[in-house]
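Researcher: Let's do a round of design. I'm pasting the structure tokens now; please hold your answer until I've finished.
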């Protein structure tokens, strides 16, 4: 029963983070499975990535249905993210990077505080004022940066996407989250497939419960996010990220 409780709490938390803010499920599920249930880290990441696939896909569908998804530029960014994730992973294997393991944990917390203190109030008109060439070039360059950091550090993809899309590319928050989860559905599938191919099939019970809980949390959060006013969405996103960030800091350093 305790294991099921952890699966459901981790999955729901990850799903809410995904649907509301484009947070990667791996940032929530992995540390909880490892800390409270003693899962092998590689297996825990595989379960997290598998949970991320459907959660990100259903979130992307919900955002797309509400016209809050930029598929064209999202595909450009996706291609560069995948290529530079591989490059970053290769370089990380040559350079000691153990000290960078806390990056995504603190980034989640700081980004949550940022949304509360300084909300993203950009409108869709700001993005529409750019030419298609500008959008493609910026998407390509930002995708390279995000992919390299994710590959080098091994985490932080969802947070990096959200930060770059809102701060650099000037997406309004809903479109930023929608585009972020669209990209993550593909990257999570690639990661989950490779993890299972290399490390074998994970614990079936944990996999199924986490996938269902994450899917439900993501669906509910995405529906709320697309109906909410920008200010309310910023506050909700900030609170969720801050709480999850604090929970991960406590989990990482006190257990």
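Researcher: That's everything. Go ahead.
Model: Designed sequence:
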């Amino acid at each position: 029963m305790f294991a099921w409780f952890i699966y459901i709490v981790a999955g729901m938390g990850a799903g809410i983070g995904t649907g509301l803010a484009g947070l990667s499920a791996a940032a929530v599920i992995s540390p909880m499975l490892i800390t409270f249930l003693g899962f092998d880290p590689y297996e825990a990441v595989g379960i997290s990535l598998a949970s991320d696939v459907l959660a990100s896909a259903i979130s992307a569908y919900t955002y797309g249905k509400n016209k809050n998804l930029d598929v064209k530029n999202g595909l450009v960014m996706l291609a560069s993210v995948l290529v530079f994730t591989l490059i970053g992973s290769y370089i990380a294997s040559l350079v000691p990077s153990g000290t960078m393991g806390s990056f995504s944990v603190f980034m989640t917390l700081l980004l949550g505080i940022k949304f509360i203190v300084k909300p993203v109030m950009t409108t869709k008109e700001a993005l529409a004022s750019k030419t298609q060439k500008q959008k493609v070039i910026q998407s390509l360059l930002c995708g390279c940066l995000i992919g390299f950091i994710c590959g080098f550090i091994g985490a932080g993809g969802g947070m990096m996407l959200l930060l770059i899309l809102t701060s650099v590319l000037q997406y309004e928050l809903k479109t930023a989250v929608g585009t972020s989860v669209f990209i993550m559905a593909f990257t999570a599938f690639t990661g989950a497939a490779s993890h299972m191919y290399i490390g074998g099939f994970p614990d079936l019970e944990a996999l199924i419960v986490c996938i269902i809980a994450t899917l439900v949390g993501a669906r509910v959060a995405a529906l709320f996010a697309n109906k909410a006013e920008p200010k309310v969405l910023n506050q909700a996103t900030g609170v969720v990220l801050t709480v999850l960030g604090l929970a991960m800091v406590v989990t990482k350093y006190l257990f």
